[in-house]
Amino acid sequence: MATRSLWRSAAKLTLYGTALGGGAAAAAISTSDNPATALKVCTTVPLRLVRDSFTAAAIAFDYEYSLLGLAEGSAERAEVKRECHRRGAERLRELCFRNGGIYIKLGQHIGQLEYLVPEEYVQTMRASMLNRCPVSSYEQVCEVFKKELGGMPDEIFAEFEPVPLASASLAQVHAARTRGGEKVAVKVQHSHIADTADVDCATVELIVNTLHWVFPSFDYRWLVDEMRESVPKELDFIVEAKNSVKCLENFRRLSPQLAECIYAPSVFWNLSTSKLLTMEFMDGAEISDVKKIQRLGIQPSEVAKLVSQAFSEMIFKHGFVHCDPHAANLLVRPMPSGRRNFFGKKKPQLVLLDHGLYKELDYSTRINYAALWRGLVFADVRAIKENSVKLGAGEDLYVLFAGILTMRPWKKVIDPAADHLVIQGNDNERSELQMYASQYFPEISELLRRLPRVILLLLKTNDCLRAVNNSLMQGSSLQTYFITARASSEAIIAAKMRKWSFLSSLSIWLEEILLEIRLLSMEVAMWLLHLRKALSG
Questions:
Q1: Which of 31, 206, 350, 379 is the most exposed place for a label (fewest CB within 10 A)?
Q2: 165 neighbors 185 (Cβ within 8 angstroms)
Q3: pTM metric for this prediction
Q4: Rounded mean pLDDT, 17-31
């Protein structure tokens, strides 16, 4: 019944979309400064809607038909459902590649939502979305240059490499040299992507809403809401450039102890527009390339520590967070000053790339989130519940929220052991987490619907950082949680100091002493764990 309804909905969507697309096309072509471009864009939209509708219907029909008659909770149903997930993920992947643009961005976002969507979707998207991004031809690049800077690339720059260094969902990067001799990286937006972005978001929203209507447990409307808010900002490269400046200024002003260790490429403002961004060219090792980092004379553990410090400061103290820290957006190089650590290894500098996706945390959200993480690290059940509720999880789903944040079952979250949040990363642990994700899928959907969108982006950021830490340390480390505990606690203490009085200052002083004792105990535990690991190895 639901399947028949979905096929009818798909047909209606296709018919209505084509009719609306035709009307919109006529209006757009008649008013456009570039009728040829408008015609190309408007004829593409109905075709994409047809693809969207039938892909969604095919995925839903597969689930409905394949699971028909199989007992809920049976091993056979679980196995068949996994196969449905795999086929659905492959269909969605092909849709993203065929439509391109915003759809690639959507696929990348899904690939970073580990344990929030079925594993098969995450693995399929993660394996392909970063490696098969569209590439604009040199003629299309020239078209953007002429429109944005009034000349061809070889007229603007002394040298310009026609073959891109890298390509992403929204843009690609070319090496170039300015007339003044500086080597630069030029980020060029894929042509016409801005013209179709609004319509692409609308068609995705239409499909997601229809799927939710037919299958109420399928509720990913929050993902569409997030795309609608973030995509326009990511398509404006001036916003990206300003974000990079603000990020470094925050470190200089609020975290001076780290300011020298964090860097973002300088922007050439006279050679940048909303669709074309010229930046200082950066050499360094991609953060997941452990062997290259070691060849540079840098310890991977030092890099992992710096990443944890940088993002803890951004989240808990700055309230202005880079929300796309996957491996391709983080480079490592030796400190330009040549500083070395106690063992003679070069100190690392973290270079942040792609500043298009940032989130600002308002004061109360930042402090509540800091208090929640402090509660998680110190296994404080009262603080976990209280601050989860303040952030919107509710009294019924705070346990699930804690599990999603830490990727640990509740019994581990509240375990007083110092390393209770450390993820071992073995097959048994992965299987347990995947079982929970499958078992509590409706509750996870409800939780994601409740939480503020800024928290949803922080969940994605956590997943990216967890992946980075795993590549550097071959698993999570106690050091990460030690850094989180200190930064979150310092943010809470700073918030309390705003309401100064003699009694409050005495209370804060005692709290700081208690914090140092707890952190010292964590450091001792961390040292003992390292020693035990070294002796057993």
A1: 31
A2: yes
A3: 0.84
A4: 47
